[in-house]
Structures are given as structure tokens and as C-alpha cells.
Design brief:
Blueprint lengths: L5 H10 L12 H12 L15 H11 L2 H21 L6 H22 L3 H5 L6 H15 L7 H18 L10 H14 L6 H23 L11 H29 L1
Helix pairs in contact: 1-5, 4-5, 7-8, 8-9, 9-10
């Protein structure tokens, strides 16, 4: 669901002439084509019919159903369509319309940034005296802030591998350096359990399930990232992976911080 507040929806509906069920000057066919071209989504899919079948209601459903990123992308495309249409018909863009165009662009930028910044802090948390590690974190942050999580997949895999190994080294956990990422992580989870650093069975299960996630990450890194000449993974799945991996790091960092305090 996109994080649009009521006043923002009012401004968008005003700019896109959504009263009476319409959206600008689109016919059903051109409306479908426009959204498909800009989002790869079929606006006439049944999933967008829960408010009603008009173009305006389907667009409202799209705002409710889709992510901040996808909604922001469509809003920007529609704003550009409004501007180009007015230039084409040589309409005068008065001050009021200019202000509304600018405000709607700002709305799109706001929700786009809200979507991509989630998870960055956890990637920047680990404080390791390793220049390569810091550079990896900065590269990942830059890709996410540019709204390009696809470009971060290879470096994110390297980052989490170095991070897990650093945890094993910190706690004197022996591991085979030829072992894949998920195996090293599994050894660390065993340590947490043995050291009574987990308070609930649920937390333990979630961390163990992450072993499977990291196992699958090996395939993404090798076959769907810039690590090799691959077809790059799409935005939404890249963001899903980023958020899941960053949530694992954030939780582990909280455990490590508590454990460090006990040691003093």
C-alpha cells in the first residue's frame, strides 16, 4: 500500500481530473495501455476493481494496492502526461496549475523515498574496522538511495558474507572458509541458541528460517546480479530481498549490543 495521506489524494485527484469516474482524457483502452507501459500492471485486472469499475476508482485501487515505488512511478508519468498534453494544445499553465503540478511531483518523490530508505540504517550499523566492509556498506546505501536495489544484490551478498564471518570470528566459532554463506550463518545461529541469547522459540525459528533465505541468496548473487553477465533481478524482488536481509542484520545487531553490555 502506498503511503498517501488524504490531502495528497485530493491534490492528485484534482490534477488528474478524477471527478465523475474519469482520469484525464483517457479512454478505457488508452488508460490500460498507459499504465501497462509505465508499471507493467494491467489496471483492468480484477485486483483493482474493489472500489468500482470506473477509471478513477481503478486508479484509487492501484494507489491502495501497490507499493510506494510503483505508485510514485505512475504519478510521475501522469504528471508528465498532463504537462505534455497542455503543451500540445498550447494551453496556458497558470500559477495555480503550476503549483499543483509541483505539489504532485513532490508527493511522488516523498513516497518513493519513504519506500527505499527502509532498511538502510541496519546496513550501516555494524562497526567493523575494515575499509572494504565500509565501502561495501556505502555502495549498497548509494544504490538503495538511488532507488536501484537491483544494482546492490552482488554487493549485499558480499556484505552479509563478510558480516557473518566477522561474527563467527568474534565469538571464536570455527567454520570452513569454503562453506557457503548459509552454512556459516547456521553455525552462528547455533551459537546464539547455545549461549542463551535468544529468549523465545519463535525468534530462534525465524533465524533458522533465514538460513534457507541466505541459501537462496547464493543463487540470486550468482545468476541474477551484476556478479556475472546475468539478467538482473527485478526491482520489487530485489527490494524484498534487501528488506529481509537488512531485518536479519538489524536483529542480530540488537543481540550483539546486549551481549556486549553483559561483557562489561
Amino acid at each position: 500500500m502506498a503511503d498517501l495521506i488524504s490531502i495528497e489524494k485530493i491534490k492528485l485527484e484534482s490534477l488528474f481530473n478524477m471527478s465523475g469516474g474519469y482520469v484525464l482524457n483517457f479512454s478505457n483502452k488508452t488508460f490500460q495501455q498507459f499504465i501497462l507501459e509505465n508499471t507493467q500492471k494491467d489496471i483492468y485486472d480484477a485486483i483493482y476493481s474493489f472500489y468500482g469499475d470506473s477509471k478513477a476508482n481503478r486508479l484509487r485501487a492501484f494507489w491502495t494496492k501497490e507499493s510506494n515505488y510503483l505508485v510514485s512511478k505512475l504519478i510521475i508519468a501522469l504528471v508528465e502526461y498532463v504537462q505534455e498534453s497542455m503543451l500540445k494544445w498550447e494551453e496556458v499553465i497558470d500559477t495555480k496549475k503550476q503549483k499543483l503540478l509541483a505539489e504532485c511531483t513532490q508527493i511522488a518523490e516523498r513516497i518513493k523515498q519513504d519506500g527505499v530508505h527502509e532498511g538502510i540504517d541496519s546496513i550501516m550499523q555494524p562497526d567493523l574496522e575494515d575499509k572494504d566492509f565500509s565501502q561495501l556498506a556505502n555502495h549498497i546505501r548509494d544504490s538503495i538511495e538511488k532507488n536501484e536495489p537491483e544494482a546492490a544484490m552482488d554487493r549485499l551478498h558480499t556484505f552479509i558474507f563478510k558480516y557473518v564471518r566477522s561474527l563467527c570470528d568474534k565469538h571464536n566459532i570455527t567454520y570452513d572458509k569454503n562453506k557457503p554463506l548459509h552454512s556459516c550463518y547456521g553455525e552462528y545461529v547455533k551459537f546464539l541458541k547455545k549461549s542463551n541469547l535468544l529468549e523465545s522459540e519463535m525468534a530462534e525459528r525465524i533465524l533458522k528460517y533465514a538460513i534457507t533465505i541466505l541459501d537462496s541468496f547464493n543463487d540470486v548473487r550468482n545468476n541474477r546480479s551484476f556478479a556475472h553477465d546475468n539478467k538482473i533481478l527485478n526491482y520489487d524482488e530485489s527490494m524484498l530481498i534487501f528488506k529481509n536481509v537488512s531485518s536479519i542484520i538489524a536483529f542480530i545487531e540488537s543481540i550483539e549490543a546486549k551481549d556486549d553490555k553483559k561483557s562489561y
